[in-house]
Amino acid sequence: MEQLNARKPKYIFITGGVVSSLGKGIASASLGLLLERRGYRVNFLKFDPYINVDPGTMNPYQHGEVYVTDDGAETDLDLGHYERFTRLTMGRENNFTTGRIYFDVITRERKGAYLGGTVQIVPHITNEIKQVILDRGKDVDIVLCEIGGTVGDIESLPFLETIRQFPREVGKENVAYVHLTLVPYVRASCELKTKPTQHSVHKLREIGISPNVIVCRAEEPLPDDVRQKIALFCNVDPEAVISAPDVPSIYEVPIEFHRQKLDKLLLRYFRLKTPRADMADWIRLVQKARKIRKTVAIGVVGKYVDLQDSYKSLIEALQHAGVHNGVKVRIRWLDSEEIEASENPVPLFKGLGGILVPGGFGSRGIEGKMRAIQYARERKVPFLGICLGMQLAVIEFARNVMGLAGATSREFEENPTHAVIDLLPGQSNQKETGGSMRLGIFDVDLLGGSRVVSLYGRNRVQERHRHRYEFNAQYQKEMESRGLLVSGTYSDRKLVETVELNDHPFFLASQFHPEFKSRPVLPHPLFIGFVEAAHLHDGKMSEKTLGKDVLR
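Below the sequence we write its predicted structure tokens.
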């Protein structure tokens, strides 16, 4: 595609109002896709208002998934949306928190950079934020900057004050504001209510920001009279009120925005050319997904199942592979603690085409996860283990196949009899937990003739990691002699990356996180193979057997 170059970088700031979790990340990613498909070079920036330096040590129930980038940054899950919707690769410089901004300013103050002056939110914090934004504009045409939180939150004020000032730095003709709000449907009166949107925009204008575009989340498309009313009371053109109704798939959002000419509206505001958007492959993807009628049930065994955002990339990777295989993946969430507490958990696995044990930390629920792994191994149910899922598969094999009583990970027990999973070399004296794991992209060498090399179709790949404990190589030969094949390694440090069973339809586990590199138009090979195997298996266990069998 021909690249178009803007004379000066343009900046689009995306804010949110009324309630949180409306989908600013999806809206930003969708707009980025449309601008990229029109030939413009885009970049993303996400500001999170919490004081944590990064989300790496935050509970998934509070923040959702921690998304890991190639350069080893632990970031907000919205960076995953940015990567899945566009052809870009995100990194550490695409996500800043309040904590990181303040940390950098305080560090500079300690070194005397401010010459003894009083360090204040304005101008020092706001200037730091400005510089971050300006840096993202180098070598690109358009920067999409998402401000986390909701207008009216005290935590977001420094960021909102910064973007209010920003047109003074780059010229108001180079800045546009997109505000995402909720238009609720009140069933008692059978009408859509615009007042929350009006109040949210009013709050934004009190700060000194007048949105150029208002994106309205609602259950159904907005009628024209509602759009006209919002335009009148919020001082925007009617065509700048964009309806964002609920859709069957998040990947339909860019098509909906394109239909309403959101991308063209912003390009014309910036006085940029509006070449045709090359959306053919994306439209084919959505159309294929709509036509799928076959389904396969996959059980995901975790301990954060009450908040599915904890496994966002995993969910999307399964859906990508499902569309590729022509099946709809139905995820059945299995609480590992419920499995652990059950006298006979076998009925919980009834009808599953495959079982997946994702990453995680801590000892809570691990016995339940291993019971699921044992079930998959013994009953020949397709299994995929990721990070902790691989470690637990190794522990389960050591206990139940090799007979190593007490086999476990040093993460769960300080002085185990058999530490088949142990600390990374050099981590035994590690005091800080934030950012101290093996993080980011590393080479993985694959064993010829293995299942994993057949799935990738090449002998060396690069994958993203986030872990502190490793397969203990002292047990490798004995495990391989009993049938657990080490099929992938990080040769530079002789670390185990993948294990698999030969006498099984599909039993594969990886130390890395393949879900972070799956994209809708380019699903990850491990998920493609897993979903294909699960579809073939298709839960063909008889109810009679399920009713009688009990896991040991």
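Residues 386 and 458 are 20 Å apart (CA to CA).
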